[in-house]
Design brief:
The chain is of the alpha/beta class. The protein contains three helices and 19 strands.
Length: 181
């Protein structure tokens, strides 16, 4: 799968990342678990779009808050990792569980120097990415879909479907399939 090339970070980008990382280490990460409002504030300060009642946990690692869109009630669980070189959008009431990895970038192995490439990840409303799952660049996880624990998702996931395995394959329908009828 070919993705658009991503320009290397310029000096301004590097400084912005450094300031965010210091803020994450000193103010975001050590905050008590229940202080979601404080973390929402910090993310917004760095350009994230964060809806009401969103739950960014303190150990959730966010590479670039300005590329993060957390809709109302969405959750970035403990130890989750958002490598959001390209944008990541979490739909309303979606959940990214502990230690899940959302990776918007890769390298083009067909080009000299392995150019950095990437594409956005979209997680639909009421979707769930379970513990330790990997979601790759350009993936769209449909509304109400479930990505099982430790699944490796490199292709789009249909709404209300359940996927598991490496590579992830459909194994059924989520309970939201009933409501879609």
């Amino acid at each position: 799968m070919a993705f658009p090339e991503i320009a290397p970070p310029n000096l301004r980008d590097r400084i912005r990342r450094m300031v965010w990382r210091i803020t994450w280490l000193l103010l975001y990460r050590p905050s008590p678990v229940t202080m979601h409002g404080w973390r929402r504030f910090l993310l917004r300060l760095f350009g994230a779009t964060v809806g009401a009642k969103a739950h960014p946990y303190p150990s959730a690692s966010i590479w670039a808050p300005w590329n993060l869109d957390m809709r109302e009630g969405s959750c970035l669980g403990e130890g989750s990792d958002c490598y959001n070189v390209a944008p990541i959008r979490l739909g309303r009431w979606s959940i990214v569980s502990q230690k899940a990895y959302l990776c918007t970038a890769t390298h083009d192995i067909q080009r000299p120097g392995f150019a950095l490439t990437g594409a956005p990840i979209i997680i639909g409303d009421r979707a769930w990415v379970a513990a330790d799952a990997f979601v790759g660049p350009g993936v769209d996880i449909g509304e109400g879909a479930v990505v099982a624990a430790r699944a490796v998702v490199v292709r789009d996931v249909q709404a209300a479907s359940v996927v598991a395995g490496n590579p992830a394959k459909s194994i059924g329908q989520s309970m939201l399939a009933e409501f879609a009828r």
